[in-house]
């Protein structure tokens, strides 16, 4: 007999996209999950996430003080799938908009292979200056002091979609937020990793300046992702406090390890590797004592428990320290299905970690609270 699920303890979705289906937002207050960490990804959903946070956003890091309508932790960021829609105005003489020739030059530079179809290039969105996006993101983060930065990251395999056909406009599902793939065929063009790295690094720097946690996407680029993250904390590595210094200050080794400097840094204080799909052996580098950011690893049924990924995912869950595991749905629609996906992945994690459901849900709650808001490990 399946054990009843302890929703009353508090279940927290570390990464999801319900603003991709705005009609589903009405279901959020009735969900069993206590709170959703909602990601922005592109131009079309940044303000939508802010609007939802106005209505359903949390007001405090103290979970037990939340009202019934405090259900959303907003996150603002630009996903690597859409990195090609950004340009660095420094490369174009400070221009805030690109003319047709500059637009062609931009897309030939950041897409691989470089497109030679003028009709394809003209169908792509007019790229926006990255500095403008960063300024808007800073405004969102300052307006929502408990907001995170996400979804950001690197993706080596994603190919941008072909432009929509005329028939697509006539049959388009109007409940979906524009800008996604929506079933379109994929082109042969990928976004260059160098361009993605520039976009990612600037967002990591912003998160570091404002001391916000980040939710990071990584697909087939796990080595490059770690190196990009590590470059932001170079020169800030943690150094163990000597026994003599701990004795002089009258603190324990655990207290010394938990000391945090909240001054602005070029790297974020906390990082979630969302729906981690790398090899389990690659995780140890993130938990090295010298890493100054606290790294968490999140798992989802939707991404991590396909037939091919299930075995590797279970190995990764075993490797991740108990106080760094998170769960997520990664779904684009809120409601009963999101709750079901969360319950499913939590049961899997508890089985692998050999936790009872009550112990596991409490651990995962504590982990999410530390990831989202900081604070000492429990």
From TrEMBL:
Region feature Disordered, mapped onto this chain: 160-186, 235-269
Segments forming a coiled coil: none
Pfam families: TatD_DNase
UniProt cross-references to InterPro entries, sorted A to Z: Metal_Hydrolase, Metallo-hydrolase/TatD-type, TatD-like
Official protein name in the record: Cut9 interacting protein-like protein Scn1
Species of provenance: Phyllosticta citribraziliensis
Lineage, highest ranks first: Eukaryota, Fungi, Dikarya, Ascomycota, Pezizomycotina
